[in-house]
Design goal:
The chain has 774 residues and is an alpha+beta fold. 46% of the residues lie in helices and 15% in strands. The strands form six sheets. Strands 3, 4, 5, 6, 7, 8 and 23 form a seven-stranded antiparallel β-sheet that branches. Strands 10, 13, 14, 15, 18, 19 and 22 form a seven-stranded mixed β-sheet that branches. Strands 1, 16, 17, 20 and 21 form a five-stranded antiparallel β-sheet that branches. The two termini are 51 Å apart.
């Protein structure tokens, strides 16, 4: 055996150590590289999650695309984001194309001096722009407005109230911060309403039954005592007197009442009312007692001249007098009281059908039976036409009268005669207590119960609240408890779109479910110190830690804004959608007499936890709850979401689909703004209606524009002056999607995934493609 010399051994030893150090250094460098790479991936991952939470989806896509080898979580989020971004790109392209088309259509109508149709197309175009203010100041549009105002004034002089409304309505919508357009529209709407009221003999009597002078006087007194601010009784008196002049000038009223039809009596009436109006205008101010005395004098003048029915006089006088107050202060006359209380109470006695009156055929159509009601159990279906109640024809009755006829004492019988296709069927029913369901889900299961899962796999629930009733908070609790029982609820989307509000207490209790003890929900402040209150969450809500996204839109009002504002200001969730309506006022119901008349009076304002009241006053620069993540919809998208919501609510066999051309083309635009439509019902739920496609121009079937069945004319009546039909198609080019709900779902998915996997360093791809969890 050979032995190494000590020197050689030392050299070899150092060599081995050196190689070991080199190998070790290489291993450390590889580890450092992996750690640096993981750190970079984690940083990009967190950046993506944060950008989604702020609504910067384009930035989130860019960030997540930089992540290399991030594993299946990264790929899942990347897929979601890329699909969403592709949808947004497609939407923006459609917006640009529609904007160009609608502006072109509007200018074609301007050339033909068809200003009402041009304004409708301008309104459609405004829906497609991001910078609405800049659009409203475009030169061609400002010229259209001037020409339209001249045309509207001519229509008014000709007593063509419908044509005047067709001009003022889009102006009031386009320039919704211009009070003059709102006032002009209200005036012509009054004439249109009076024409409608007096069209059918006796209809006006039904609407003002039990209207009494004593109730009107008490209402004026309560306005003076409790209104949220000092009421301007001079303005109220002027408006009441002006309403009398509008009534006297109405051709329909002149035809309906002998006194107004007599020119001498009418002129005497209007002359004396005008003198009184001039006297009031010259006064520095009035209090409620002085205003009431002026109105008593109007009653005397009426008796001495045109002798209108006192109920009509009182109703119209108060309608005018309350106009200068806010939009929500009104007298609920006895005829409307029962219907009004159904909404706040949440139940009623009836058979359980939601109905709508077709404005063309005057027929009463079933929108849907309500679940677990006599109508549902008997087999009444969506699309059925109710022709008779207890053997009596109902076609000529108002919608309110039909509701009164169908409802009645519990346990009493009623027979509905239904036309279904060519068949006529009688349904003997027994009236029972019907619960108005304000809490709904995403779609119905096969058993027609609501499915409250939006994404079962990722544990995302969904609750839609249509209004805030006494039973709403309890119903939401029950739904959440059921979802929890399935042991997979991780997040919730709460949909408040198209929710007009309801009870303050309901909003307070419902908000408290998602807040921590002591969190402010809302406060109220009024002229009367008794109206000053602060509503806090009294204890930790059972779902205060549940990730929450709240969906709102421009029709979310009052109690909806309280809930959305409380969640946003307390940082307990995100708000997605469009800016809310801006109704931050509190109304109290004050009984006026034993006749069941009540005064719905604004007594205070709501204030969010941040201390602001976002009521939409005429001079407000800021109003409504602004979403954290805004998602603007255009009119066809709003219509599609309405269709999806309506179809989800229907029970039983689906309503027959329309012809494709009819579905895609917007309906004819010549419609009475005061006609009866919308779901009322033996729920008489006073819903938003069975809906109608958006209209622009004077859209007719297959896109051809007509006016009252004739070709539109420019100037003159001769054959030479008639213009040919102008085809301006406006097909529904938007996919049947709900972009606001899609956004809320994406935000919730990414939020949950980001919370459960705050980093992706622990998730690396294995050689086999499987994920290694360490």
């Amino acid at each position: 055996m050979h032995r190494l010399s000590p020197r050689v051994g030392r050299i070899l030893g150092f060599t081995v150590i050196a190689w070991a150090m080199v190998l070790c250094h290489g291993a450390i460098s590889a580890t450092d590289t992996r750690q640096a790479s993981a750190s970079a991936r984690n940083e990009l991952w967190q950046q993506s999650i944060d950008l989604v939470g702020r609504g910067d989806f384009e930035g989130a896509v860019g960030a997540i695309r930089k992540i290399q080898d991030g594993g299946h979580l990264t790929e899942q989020v990347r897929t979601w984001l890329e699909e969403y971004e592709a949808q947004q790109v497609a939407r923006r392209e459609l917006d640009r194309a529609d904007l160009e088309k609608y502006v072109g259509y509007a200018k074609q109508r301007i050339e033909r001096k068809e200003y009402a149709m041009a304004l409708e197309w301008a309104l459609a175009a405004a829906d497609c722009v991001e910078d609405r203010e800049a659009f409203l100041h475009e030169e061609w549009l400002e010229q259209l407005v001037n020409d339209s105002l001249i045309a509207a004034e001519k229509a008014r002089k000709d007593s063509d109230w419908k044509e005047a409304w067709r001009l003022y309505n889009p102006l009031a919508t386009l320039y919704d911060r211009e009070p003059r357009y709102q006032k002009l529209e209200r005036e012509v709407l009054t004439h249109l309403r009076l024409e409608t009221v007096f069209e059918e003999e006796g209809l006006w009597k039904e609407r003002i039954e039990k209207v009494r002078w004593e109730d009107a006087e008490r209402a004026m007194e309560f306005v003076g005592l409790y209104y949220v601010e000092l009421a301007d009784f001079k303005a109220m008196t002027e408006a009441g007197l002006e309403q009398m002049l509008l009534l006297a000038e109405s051709p329909a009223a002149q035809k309906a009442f002998t006194g107004l039809g007599n020119e001498n009596d009418r002129n005497d009436f209007t002359a004396r009312i005008r003198r009184k109006l001039e006297y009031v205008q010259a006064a520095p101010s009035l209090d409620w007692d002085e205003a009431t005395k002026h109105f008593r004098r109007v009653r005397d003048i009426n008796e001495q001249t045109v002798d209108l029915p006192e109920e009509l006089l009182i109703s119209e006088l108060m309608r005018g007098a309350f106009e200068p107050l806010d939009d929500f202060t009104t007298i609920i006359w006895p005829q409307d009281a029962v219907e009004f209380h159904k909404h706040t109470r949440g139940d009623f006695i009836g058979v359980g059908v939601s109905i709508v009156k077709d404005r063309v055929t005057d027929e009463i159509e079933v929108v849907s039976p309500l679940e677990d009601t006599p109508a549902y159990r008997a087999g009444i279906q969506a699309g059925d036409i109710i022709t008779k109640v207890d053997g009596k024809e109902i076609k000529n009755l108002s919608l309110n009268k039909v509701v009164d006829t169908i409802t009645g004492p519990r346990g009493t019988p009623v027979v509905l005669t239904i036309r279904r296709g060519e068949e006529e069927i009688e349904f003997p029913l027994k009236r029972d207590r019907v619960k108005i369901q304000s809490v709904k889900g995403y779609k119905r299961n096969d058993d027609e119960e609501w499915n409250h899962w939006l994404d079962r796999e990722n544990g995302i629930g969904y609750i839609r609240i249509t209004n805030f009733q006494k039973n709403t908070e309890e119903d939401v609790r029950n739904v959440l408890a059921d979802l929890e029982d399935e042991d997979s609820l991780k997040g919730l989307v709460l949909d408040l779109r198209n929710n007009p509000g309801g009870l303050l207490e309901s909003a307070w209790r419902l908000s408290s479910l998602f807040l921590k003890r002591g969190d402010v929900v809302v406060s109220t402040r009024g002229r009367n110190p008794a109206e000053n209150h602060t509503f806090n969450a009294r204890r930790d809500g059972p779902y205060a830690d549940l990730p929450l996204t709240v969906l709102v839109d421009e029709h979310s009002a009052s109690a909806s804004e309280i809930l959305a504002g409380a969640i946003k200001d307390n940082n307990h969730g995100q708000v997605v959608g469009a800016r809310t309506f801006g109704k931050f006022s509190v109304q109290n119901l004050i009984p006026l007499s034993r006749s069941q008349a009540e005064l719905k009076l604004t007594t205070a304002r709501y204030y969010l936890p941040s201390g602001v009241s976002l009521h939409r006053d005429p001079d407000s620069d800021k109003w409504g709850v602004e979403p954290d993540i805004p998602v603007r919809l255009v009119r066809w998208e709003r219509y599609n979401t309405f269709l999806m919501r309506r179809d989800a609510e229907r029970i039983g066999p689906p309503k027959p689909e329309k012809d494709e051309d009819e579905e895609d083309a917007a309906k004819t635009g010549d419609e009475d703004p005061d006609s009866e439509s919308g779901d009322k019902s033996a729920t008489a739920e006073d819903d938003k209606g069975d809906g109608e496609e958006p209209k622009a121009g004077e859209d007719a079937k297959n896109g051809e524009d007509t006016k009252d069945g004739e070709d539109a004319e420019a100037d003159g009546d001769s054959e030479e002056d008639k213009l040919p039909k102008l085809e301006q198609k406006d097909e529904n080019n938007r996919p049947k999607e709900d972009p606001q709900l899609d956004t809320a779902l994406l935000v919730m998915r990414v939020k949950l995934l980001g919370a459960s996997s705050p980093t992706i360093a622990a998730v690396e791809p294995s050689p086999s493609g499987e994920q290694l969890h360490r």
